[in-house]
Amino acid sequence: MSRLGIGIIGAGSIARAHAAAYAQFANECQMVAVADVFAERAKEFAQQLGSEVQAYDNALRLLEREDVHLVSICTPPFTHTELTLAALQAGKHVWVEKPIAPSLAECDNMISAAEQAGRVLAGVFQNRYRPEYQRAKALMRSGELGRLVLAKADCLWWRGRNYYEVWWRGTWEKECGGVTINHAVHHIDLLLWLVGETVVSVFAEMDTFTHDVEVEDLSCAVLRFANGAIGSIVSTVSAHQNTDRIEITCEHADLLL
Predict the structure, then answer these.
(1) Which of 15, 27, 86, 234 has the highest CB neighbour count under 10 A?
(2) How would residue 200 be classed by pLDDT, with cut points 50, 70 and 90?
(3) Strands of 199-207's sheet, edge to edge?
(4) What is the pLDDT confidence band of residue 1, given thresholds at 50, 70 and 90?
(5) DSSP string of 181-236, one letter each residue
(6) CA 131 to CA 128: how far, in whole Å?
(7) How far is CA 116 from CA 96, 230, 253, in A?
(8) How far is CA 242 from CA 25, 74, 133, 157, 237, in A?
């Protein structure tokens, strides 16, 4: 079986994590090309990956290559929908960074395009594969814990002024949201995946307290699940220490993660 040809669109810091992950599966895939709107950054990244990796300053040129079978989209959130649709139309499988898209309608459009193209579309929710969450999911599926009563997720982080000096962060137009969609998105995904219950109602508040940005730096949500259980999600980048916590209370036992 020939190896999958990999292309990475976006040459920022998260692209390095994607490249490192692909490198662990060198027998199954090989880096072929990278693209970034900043040509020098694309060239530098390509050189780090190997002499055979080609750099582009236009993602569409990368997508024209027949030896690229799978692309990682590691660009700012406002570009995800357009690039994902272009990649799928070019016949590529797509691994797109979170948040997958700024709106539910765009997510649905991307999923529909993947189904029509017969290609795999995946979001980056790597925490699902951590051993502790895999064990917790197995326990929840087993039914041994009993009926779900309460599910809580806390994403209490700090991000300083330097974090928002990156050109696309802190605006609705380009980051497409704040702490909820770009930080707590992992906690939200884990909580809903672990409990396996449909959310039937949400009440939420959000505001900006300690950063000079357009988007929210704190949000709180209260959820009602289909089985009657209650949930909460609290997220901020104004905390003075980083705390990640998921707590699930069931009829017979608790899970603390």
Answers:
(1) 15
(2) very high
(3) 199-207, 218-225, 230-236, 148-158, 238-250, 254-256
(4) low
(5) HHTTHHHHHHHHHHH---EEEEEEEEE--SSSSSS-SEEEEEEEETTS-EEEEEEE
(6) 8
(7) 18, 37, 44
(8) 32, 24, 19, 4, 9
